[in-house]
Amino acid sequence: MNQKSTPNWQFTGNNGEFSLKHPDKSSFLYFPLVNEGGMMSSISPQLHGQVTTGHNTFLTPPISVEDLHNSRGSRNFWVYVEGKGAWSAAGNSARQHAQAYSDSADESLLEAGLLWHRITRENKELGIKAEVTSFVPCGTDTVELMKIVLTNTGTEEIRITPTAAVPLYARSADDLRDHRHVTSLLNRIYTSAYGVEVQPALSFDERGHRINHTSYGVFGAEEEGGQPAGFFPVQEDFIGEGGSLDWPEAVVLNAEPQIGHGGGIHKEGYEALGGLRFASAALLPGQSRSYVVVLAIESDRINISRLMSKYGASAAFDAYLEENKLFWAGKVNTVEFHTGDDDADQWMKWVTLQPVLRRLYGNSFLPYHDYGRGGRGWRDLWQDCLALLIMEPGDVRSLLLNNYAGVRIDGSNATIIGQQPGEFIADRNNIPRVWMDHGAWPFMTTMLYLNQSGDLDFLLQEQTYFRDSFMSRCRERDSSWEGAAGSSLRTADGNIYKGTILEHILLQNLVPFFNVGEHNNILLEGADWNDGLDMAAQRGESVTFTAFYASNLYELSMLLRTLKERTGQKTLVLAEEMVLLLDSLGDAVDYTSVSAKLERLKHFYAAAPNVVSGIRANLDIEQVADDLAQKAEWIFAHLRKNEWVASEHGDGWFNGYHNNDGERVEGEKAEGVRMTLTGQVFPLLGHAAAPEQIPHIIAAVERNLFDEKIGYRLNSNFGGIQQNLGRAFGFAFGHKENGAMFSHMTVMYGNALYKRGYVQEGHKVLDSLYNLSANFELSRIYPGVPEYINEQGRGMYTYLTGSASWLLLTMVTEVFGVKGQLGDLRLEPKLVKEQFDQEGKASIKTLFADRQLEVVYTSTGSAGYGEYQIHSVTLNGAEVTLQRVSEGVVIPRDVLSALPEGQVHQLQVVLA
User: Fold this and answer.
1) Which Pfam families match (predicted)?
2) pLDDT top residue among 176 and 590
3) Which pLDDT score is estimated for 1?
4) Which is nearest to 557 in space by CA: 402, 462, 677, 447?
5) Total-model pTM
6) Domain boundary residue, one of 284, 301, 332
7) pLDDT 10s digits, 537-546
């Protein structure tokens, strides 16, 4: 067997462009193609993948990652070479599969950039080369474009007959197995001058049997607009009896098309194919011929003449490709890094793109994400905003405001997210569930917004609350609720109730404080950030998110004091029912008593049973701040005393969980060490971990969780299924939530270490993630950060991961130290020696105060962190008067706001 080498991908340009030889020698590879209009595609080196605008509208068959190499269907483009036989420009033929490991195998090269994809494939025996370029044009057209350039690489003239063959699935993903045949009977197939269009008569899915209007089509043109010579609209006729999509009779025998030039024939009741036969042509040595294929989904019959006049020519394709490159470069290059490692800087462009991809795809519609039906979850809404605050800050205020409409009066939130910003849908599946961490994220994201913008008025803006049939954190049902009444919380007299954003935040963080288990930590409920910990709803407790909520309470107390100081506001206006939760203002609760806390929570639920009085309480802002601080400090002391695991090695760590039997999960047990990374991250990220505990945690993590091959594991090996904790432990150890390197928590661990001043340790964490991801020989992924890395070192679930937002945030605000301080710019770099280039420089371009800034750090001496401080700063050549704070400096916002818009302003920062 002749296994060709598989080198690493190489960056080939300055905008993230890269190339990879023999990409088809690696399984599971795919690439995203998407636009703001809702077209969502994925494409593999052999042009597998899917094309869709949503769960119920797939042009090609919906796939999982295993189908990329096992399915025979793809965006195929066949070439029949007279006298030599059939060859696939996609590399997807039975003959090419059989030759994959022989000397007769095609030579192939992948080239890709910011959302464009090109495969060049050459067969020397046939003397032919194909270059296939694919992209989804920016804008709102729901189309995917392909251009195929065929070139005679031999020494003699060849005669070719090209045929495009794209399976037209044209229905909901739900029909892939159930009703697969019967839904084909709904197909209405039309041929026209340029291709094949399918408009099923009915949509046949969980929404009911309704008249369908959506149409799907594959259309093509030769060179500068020439029409195809004929069509194969029915899949079974195209492949022939005993044939297949990777060896179809119509191509192998070079059969005449079923429908001739001009189309006009209507077919019904079959599986459809975008089968387009182009005219035979002679190619002289070195001569090329191009073809454009357009895949389209429309909400009604497709306007084919408009579509093809816009896209159906090589020159148009090239123009839209350049426009697309500029569009995505504009998105990504709002943030740019320059360090001593150009490859790492280029890699970060793909990381920067990933939060945008998650906004467009949600958690679905790419091959690894075969568990999703579309959309994003509550946690995703808030974490994706972290990156948007850096990349697209102008849109974030409205997004944050809209998102708060999903909060319930019991401190939980809607979990069914609509398509539009701020759209939340009442439960339709009768599945009551609460993820206990959900209330913690909104304040963290909002605090970042406040620091970046200084917009304290946002806290006092009013928003509605979400209401459905669930109440008391899904422990009870509201029999009086009717969906027709809407999904907004109302007062006793029937009016829609609105509270300030600050009221929403307080509610989300106060309710969990009282919602505790027998060890006085917040109940785990349905799960926390780790969705795999879903089997401890009765007695399980999440110590790790108890630490997160405590830090929120502490920072909220400081924010209230700042609000008073900056605005002069002395009182807070809150729903009167919330006074029960601010217990120190009245009837104080004994925080050491679990029963007392639960009793107070029960009183609050009774006072606000899916309805509020509408009466407001005016509370002293200092007293509210004191109440929050007392709660936070109590939790900190409680966790440090009761949840610290002392190790026989002299260090220790925080226990992260109690299981459904009420047992502490982590520790040095007879069956081995049990430790979670999550349990350490949140005490470190906030204030729960005391300064003297931090070195012990780091030592324990390095000993128990760090693996040279796959990085920082999410947990140690718990040794078997944990039915009293969660399904995650049913996964094989070293995979997904059970002991893999989960990028999200690894990045947050690095972020926490930077925040607490452990810069070298934080750099090691982020560097390990980069090196693991960029080592193609092991990770087998394109540039970017995967959701996780499995036991073999392979990157999994690429592109759609919240870890990208966190990595971008960490690089900007911690590593380069460009961060907000209630609207002012704070510079506090934490760069290590190897991140400076040979001239001692490291720089970042980013947005702040609606201005594009380039911050250039220059080290005049040793570049090691801890050995320098900011010596001087100039802005566009003029020296800036520095306001020194801690280890950094602050530049007032009004200094930046006075700068002209529309240009890059340079901050030269000298470190000495």
Assistant:
1) GH94_b-supersand, Glyco_hydro_94
2) 590
3) 29
4) 447
5) 0.96
6) 332
7) 999 999 999 9
Average pLDDT value for the chain: 95
Could you identify the residue written with the tokens 């919906």?
A: 62
The residue type of 280 is S
Number of domains in the chain: 2
* Dist. CA 663–CA 669, nearest whole Å: 12
Degrees to nearest 5, angle at CA 709 with 705 and 714: 30
Out of 332, 351, 385, a domain closes at 332
Q: What digits encode the pLDDT tens for the residues 219-254?
A: 999 988 899 999 999 999 999 999 999 999 999 999
State how far the Cα of 519 lies from the Cα of 206, in Å rounded to an integer. Answer: 44
pLDDT of residue 6: 59
First-residue to last-residue Cα distance in the chain: 59
| Residue 685 pLDDT class (50, 70, 90 cuts) | very high
Residue 860 belongs to a domain: yes
Residues of the chain by 3-state class (helix, strand, coil), percent to 5: 30, 30, 40
Cα gap 446→441, rounded to integer Å: 9
Residue 848, domain CATH: 2.60.420.10
Look up the domain containing 869 and give its range: 823-911
What torsion, rounded to 10 degrees, do the Cα atoms 106, 110, 111, 117 define?
110
DSSP string, 681-740: HHHHHSSSS-GGGHHHHHHHHHHHTEETTTEE-SB----S-BTTTBGGGGSPTTBTTBTS
Q: State the Cα–Cα distance between residues 96 and 511, nearest whole angstrom.
A: 62
Residue written as tokens 């200092």? Answer: 622
Strand partners, 673: 668
Mean pLDDT confidence for 772-796: 97
Q: List all residues 6 or more positions away from 542 whose beta carbon is below 8 Å from its beta carbon.
A: 436, 437, 521, 522, 523, 524, 528, 533, 656, 657
Q: Where are the alpha helices (DSSP H) in 541-686?
A: 543-567, 594-607, 621-642, 678-685
CATH number of the domain where residue 73 is located: 2.70.98.40
In a domain, 359, yes or no: no
Q: How far is CA 646 from CA 616, 652, 667, 678, 894, in A?
A: 48, 5, 8, 17, 50
DSSP letter string over 394-448? GGHHHHHHHHGGGB-TTS-B---B-SSTT-B---SS-----BTTGGGHHHHHHHH
In this structure, is the dihedral angle defined by the CA atoms of residues 374, 378, 383 and 385, taken in order, positive or negative? positive
473-515 pLDDT, tens digit each:
999 999 888 876 789 999 999 999 999 999 999 999 999 999 9
Map residue 125 onto helix, strand or coil. coil
| 101 occurs within a structural domain | yes
Q: What residues pair up with 186 in beta bridges, in sequence order?
A: none
**Is the pLDDT score of 3 beyond 50?**
no
pLDDT computed for residue 129 by the predictor: 98
At 264-306, the pLDDT tens digits run 999 999 999 999 999 999 999 999 999 999 999 999 999 999 9
φ and ψ of 198, to 5 deg = -125, 130
Distance CA 277, CA 230 (A): 5
- Of 813, 808, 809, 864, residue with least CA distance to 836: 864
Do 549 and 509 form a contact (C-beta atoms < 8 A)? yes
> pLDDT at residue 376 above 90?
no
The conformational region for residue 141 under phi > 0 = left, psi -120 to 50 = alpha, else beta, is beta
621 Cβ neighbours under 8 A, 6+ residues apart: 560, 561, 563, 564, 569, 570, 571, 572
In a domain, 110, yes or no: yes
Residue 684 CA to residue 547 CA, distance in Å, equals 9
Q: Which residues pair with 301 in a beta bridge?
A: none
